[in-house]
Design goal:
The structure is a homodimer of 254-residue chains.
Chain A (H helix, E strand, L loop, with lengths): L4 E6 L12 H11 L9 E5 H7 L3 E3 L7 H10 L3 H9 L1 E8 L2 E6 L4 E3 L14 E3 L5 H16 L4 E8 L8 E8 L5 E2 L15 E2 L1 H13 L8 E5 L24
Parallel strand pairs in A: 2-8
Antiparallel strand pairs in A: 1-12, 2-12, 3-7, 4-5, 5-6, 8-9, 10-11
């Protein structure tokens, strides 16, 4: 079998992103600064932080009026009631809570801590917090479309976030928005090396790509928010981050 | 911030591994076949499958006599009682079970399906199944030591497996054995770009590297079982896969 090589490159020179910024232009500038030309099949992993900021998802804490439920939950978990109000407003339900821990089913469908609300590292917005994009799949599709229009190249886009996990220590990269590549790689029915059908054959493909980018983009950093992944081989499937969400009825750990 | 580049290369020409094979020699042959010289700081990700095979962890199913508990669980989940006997013998406890699903706390401490027992893709051993290595951390340390003795280069070693996850569809790569690099990257207390302390700052570092390798090594394949990851920057911490296991008392999803 031939060797396979991937190259993972962070785009240099991406400035701090402000609401209304043209992310596609910033990405094209970063590619130019890195001497990189997009190629068909490239995947660009973009942190949710800069997508949210460009989409103006900043909320001024002083303007948040916690409701009764937020006050109650905040008292139970020991968090700022205004943050809890925002977490609950971004969530369908609480999955687990404990002192200083609030894990919810996000309105986007995944289970995560604090509804992905970023309280750190929003320069110039110290009284603000950052919510996740309204529709990260749509944001990914938009970035892909605009890149195609302005470069003529078809790339895959992943909007990444960083999630903790049951059972295991440490956060990993996950895909919360996907366009132009499979989110889940379904190998069922394909023969393995020896002609048998593969048994374990659904890969969390876009999540693994997001984790790959996280190795170089770094936790919480806004300095290296876009990572180019080159050399992947995937079928022409236009996935959605929702493909990565297990049907709650088939989830043994809810 | 400077751009960062990783290169991910599968080693070509690794033959099917047999019990007793010298994995280090096979890896050195694969490096030579790929025209690659090891460099300090390289990480080699090795699939648990070939480590297990080299260590002779094959079990002949016909020789397995299921006990009463295995028979009972097998009837409940609809699996081969001999397989269930092996799963239970490799596990501390059952975490969840459902038709055709048996998730356990492995004797190594992690939660996974079927105790990581591989029933597919064991060429020439169609009546056999493959158990995980007895002590993957020790296997990783051994590979690292032998590579240092025979090449003079200090590399990190990850022994990888592929796990499903609560909530999310698809398997991802995880580290079940680690030597010569941090398993969890602890960034707590370090300032972020703007001098604030990072909030989310424990990364499942070795798991993300294992997922990166899985993108190219492929699910179930034995053809590309060793992946070279070059360009990572990590502190000189000699981790253990156990660092990635959350204390059950602090796990809200047990």
């Amino acid at each position: 079998m031939d060797a396979v090589t991937l190259t993972i490159t962070t785009l240099p020179g991406i400035p701090l992103v402000e609401p209304g910024d043209d992310l596609v232009q910033l990405m094209m500038d970063g590619l130019a600064a890195g001497g990189l030309n997009l190629q068909a099949g490239d995947v660009l992993v973009v942190t949710s932080k800069i997508v949210s900021k460009s989409e103006g998802r900043l909320v001024r804490l002083a303007a948040v009026k916690p409701g009764a439920r937020a006050e109650a939950v905040a008292a139970e978990v020991g968090k700022d009631p205004r943050i809890v109000e925002l977490i609950l407003s971004e969530s369908r339900s609480i999955s687990r809570q404990a002192p200083n821990v609030l894990i919810t089913e996000h309105r986007l469908g995944f289970i995560s801590a604090n509804a992905g609300i970023d309280q750190s590292n929003v320069p110039g917005y110290s009284e603000y917090v950052l919510l996740l994009p309204v529709d990260p799949d749509a944001s990914a599709r938009r970035l892909r479309e605009q890149l195609r229009e302005r470069t003529g190249v078809e790339v895959g886009i992943i909007i990444s976030d960083s999630h903790g996990r049951p059972f295991r220590v440490g956060t990993v990269g996950v895909a919360i928005g996907v366009a132009g590549l499979p989110a889940v790689l379904d190998l069922r029915g394909q023969p393995d090396l020896f002609g048998r059908e593969l048994r374990i054959s659904m890969q969390g493909y876009a999540d693994m790509i997001a984790s790959t980018a996280q190795l170089v983009s770094g936790e919480g950093a806004e300095g290296l928010p876009v990572t180019l992944v080159r050399g992947l081989r995937f079928p022409a499937v236009d996935g959605s981050a929702r493909d990565l969400q297990r049907d709650p009825d088939h989830d043994l750990y809810r």
